[in-house]
Amino acid sequence: MSSWVSRATESRNAQLITTAAVSGFVVASAILGFQKARRMTRVADLKASIPDISDEHHVSRMTEYGAASNVFTPSNEDERSMALAARARKGDYDDDLILEQLARNRVFLTDPGIAKLRDAFVIVVGCGGVGSHATAALARSGCSKLRLIDFDQVTLSSLNRHAVATLADVGTPKVHCLRKRLEQITPWTHFECRNELFSEQTAATQLAPMNEQQPDFVIDAIDNIDSKVALLAYCYMNNIKVISSMGAGCKSDPTKIFIGDISASTDDPLSKSTRRKLRLQGVKDGIPVVFSTEKSGPGKAELQPLSEEEYAKGNVGELGVLADFRVRILPVLGTMPAMFGLVVANHIILSIAGYPHEYLLSKSRDKMYHGILNTLQVTEERLARALFSEDTYGLKIPITQDDVGYLIEEVYNGRSMISGLSTRLVLIRWNKPAQNFLDPRTPGQKNTTLQMRELVCMTKEEATKHEREVLKGDKNLEDVYDAETLERVNTRMAEEERYQRFR
To answer: Which residues are listed as membrane-spanning (predicted)?
Structure first.
């Protein structure tokens, strides 16, 4: 080894290579050292340029979402309005003046009705286009206690639909923007502002009583599906009255806006996704919603896709304000969120004041679901006898009536996957069982291993043919159905399988 080293060091080529390597290392070290020193110098200069904190500086901590946690530097007019509001909330405001301002509502709702509204406590979750208009209408109508919850701040693009925001409010939290402007209109209103993100983990705190008064109503004006579902499920489970606004984006026809039970809302992707996830939590109806039945069509606005340039930059999820929030542009005509918000406020005002209004009807199709479940039970028994010569006395299937309602309404939209018809519907296996589908794990108990993702919706006539030719016969699905039908069913089943993770 030593002789090899001595020979190598005597070689001229080896000496040149060694010299070059050492020189390169020295030069690289010098360059990196210089760059590091220059960065340190620049950082030091930048820090030195920051003035010391003095009484003239207004320092505030940023929120976890990167927004200013403080509200704004108030103008002289703002300061006067806030001082008046502070006195009014302490009772230093003539009640006759309040009643005069509410005179039109008072003669409409009567004195007992307006008294109930003035004593009401309403929570607004989401203070954008819909929530801001609902809040403004409630405050103007006399509702004296409002809790506002929203993590976001006013942007330039908010101004086409926000009820009260101005250019001066851009960059400030939406909850404080609403409070500041509405205090100038109804200074006696008690606003509790929470510049926070609503979530399932914080629901109990954010929907808690105000001064021991339970909320009379909660407004759901959230456009994020997971947060919306968490809010509605919490209110439903805890018997808190809630009304939800479905999607106003891509809508333009005011004559198609309705208020009804969530089970009856149609032609709205946000409503469908919300209904679907709520059903997975056992909530199928009993929540009033505002929705539009306007259908999309040629020439109408649609959800805008991200450009190829944005995809090429990397993870598009990083473009969102928060994880799992949408990052695509949702076209919104400024008038539609306002109408949704006013309908929401109108329902709350009538409900709290006790003014007559029609009951929010649901589809009430439980009888139909029960019939479909019985038909599925009989079909499973026939298949077990025909394919596996089983005694089916006492056979049970692991499907409930709520499961049937979920499949019919949310997965198959109340229509046959074969013909699109909506009458005489049933559920039936799509594929022929390859082996005995009776569950052997519990001796003495007869039940099948049937799963929801194995079922497809057809009319009774189509199901009879399907059972005879595919499930009991020798034909493949390709022999009975065309490629378009097979693709349609497979797509719908794959979509449902993705939703199984929420169960």
So the answer is: 14-34
